[in-house]
UniProtKB/TrEMBL annotation:
Protein name as it appears in the record: Glutamyl-tRNA(Gln) amidotransferase subunit D
Family affiliation: Belongs to the asparaginase 1 family. GatD subfamily.
Residue ranges of domain L-asparaginase N-terminal in the record: 75-267
Active site: T83, T159, D160, K236
EC number(s) on file: 6.3.5.-
Catalytic activity of the protein: L-glutamyl-tRNA(Gln) + L-glutamine + ATP + H2O = L-glutaminyl-tRNA(Gln) + L-glutamate + ADP + phosphate + H(+)
Record keywords, A-Z: ATP-binding, Ligase, Nucleotide-binding, Protein biosynthesis
Subunit relationships: Heterodimer of GatD and GatE.
Name of the gene encoding the protein in the UniProt record: gatD
One Pfam family recorded for the sequence: Asparaginase_C
Length: 413
């Protein structure tokens, strides 16, 4: 029997009757994607064709409206896609984003006991496809949900670029209520999925006393707690671990224990009601981020000619090779706002210690303090979108606006 990719097959093997999709075959063996989502390799001889689902199969019953308790607080769930809203596509064997915000609520029954929900889905993408225009659309959607009465907003998002989106909303929104970004490292159909626990903890945080933008993800690899990371001080530090997200240069602003759902906030957490709702959604997307490496060709800076802004991720205190300084000076002279950050995980940029740093300052570089390079890029887009005078842009980049720096105002070292 010859099979083609994506053919439905039945597998009789080791006393088991299994069903899946044929992926590939070689040397008498077949790779089959099981309905559980896992792949197996079996002799092709144990595979038989499975009948296609009948086109005349009865239609599914109409989905009943969500049953919600009117006495519970109202939360908004804004779904953008990502693994938390994904399953395995058994046609291709790949994970794809399919679930809506309402699907997520239906699939995790515990959520109905915590709050009632208004759900919306402004777009449905894997997070590598996010862009500044989507950040703006997302910020407007979150703003409108809060204005309409939501006591908190849950944003479901892919994990790969969640830190960029969380930083963007941190700068674009003044929020009186929690805005919780949540995702999953493993899709809902995996036995080790973290989507349900992360979602439950995010909703608990959404009705808490928090009043800022945070990322809610597993605090450890075990199912004991989720950490609440400030949206401007968080990074994804592992490709696949459930506790991939870590606060950088500081601790989380809070922890949600599981399964009891207790929310413990630290003393520096911004509390509910501290700020009035405001939206500042202008961005300048024509900005770039470049990581310096030893021996880097200075001509790479030419790629950013015409950009409104450039963030450099430099070494140590904020350095690049001396042969790059002329190119940086030319960019700055042509109107590109250049910010220096560090590849280090902690500490501040200071370009006044070594000769190279002083030359960079003379070339027009602005020190980015302790900002993460990714956050500095998002902040620079926001700053350039909201000011026209260079001196104002310098002041804003060096002022701690949303916890992105480790101090309130720029200080001399």
């Amino acid at each position: 029997m010859t099979f083609s990719n994506s053919d439905p097959v039945n597998v009789a093997f080791a006393g088991l009757e299994l069903h899946g999709m044929y992926i590939s075959g070689a040397n008498g063996n077949a790779v089959v994607k099981l309905s559980s989502g896992y792949n197996i390799c079996v002799p092709e001889s144990v595979c038989t064709p499975a009948p296609e689902r009948s086109a005349a199969a009865p239609a599914k019953a109409a989905v009943e409206p969500l049953k919600q308790d009117a006495k519970l607080p109202l939360l908004a769930i804004v779904s953008t896609g990502g693994t938390i809203a994904s399953t395995v596509d058994y046609r291709t064997g790949a994970v794809s984003s399919k679930f809506t915000a309402e699907d997520i609520v239906r699939s995790i029954p515990e959520l109905a006991d915590i709050a009632r929900y208004h759900t919306l889905q402004p777009f449905n993408v894997l997070s590598e496809n996010m862009n500044p225009a989507m950040w703006q659309e997302l910020a407007r959607a979150v703003h409108d949900e809060i204005a309409a009465g939501a006591k908190g907003v849950i944003v479901t998002h892919g994990t790969d670029t969640m830190l960029y989106s969380a930083a963007a909303l941190s700068f674009m929104l003044e929020t009186p209520v929690p805005v919780i970004f949540v995702g999953a490292q493993r899709s809902a159909d995996r036995p080790s999925s973290d989507n349900a626990m992360n979602a439950i903890c995010s909703v608990k945080a959404g009705i808490s006393d928090l009043g800022e933008v945070v990322v809610c993800m597993h605090a450890t690899s075990d199912d004991v707690a989720c950490a609440l990371h400030r949206g401007t001080r968080v990074r994804k530090n592992h490709t696949s671990r459930r506790d991939a997200f870590q606060s950088v240069g500081r601790g989380p602003v809070g922890v949600v224990s599981y399964p009891d759902g207790n929310v413990n906030l630290n003393g520096d957490a911004v509390l509910r009601g501290t700020h009035e709702l405001r939206l500042f959604d202008r961005l300048e997307p024509n900005c770039g981020l470049l990581q310096y490496y030893p021996g880097m060709n200075p001509n790479l800076f030419d790629a950013f000619s015409g950009c409104r802004g450039l963030v450099i991720s430099g070494t140590g205190l904020g350095h690049v090779g001396t042969d790059c300084i002329e190119k940086i000076a030319a960019l700055s002279a042509s109107g590109t706002f250049v910010v220096m950050t560090s590849q280090c995980q902690a500490g501040e940029v200071c370009d006044r210690v070594y000769e190279t740093g002083r030359d960079l300052l003379a070339a027009g570089v602005v020190e980015g303090g302790s900002m993460l390079p990714e956050v500095a890029l998002v902040k620079l887009m926001w700053v350039l979108g909201n000011t026209s005078r260079p001196e104002d842009a310098v002041r804003m980049m060096q002022t701690n606006l949303k916890g992105e720096l480790d101090y309130d105002l720029w200080r001399e070292m």
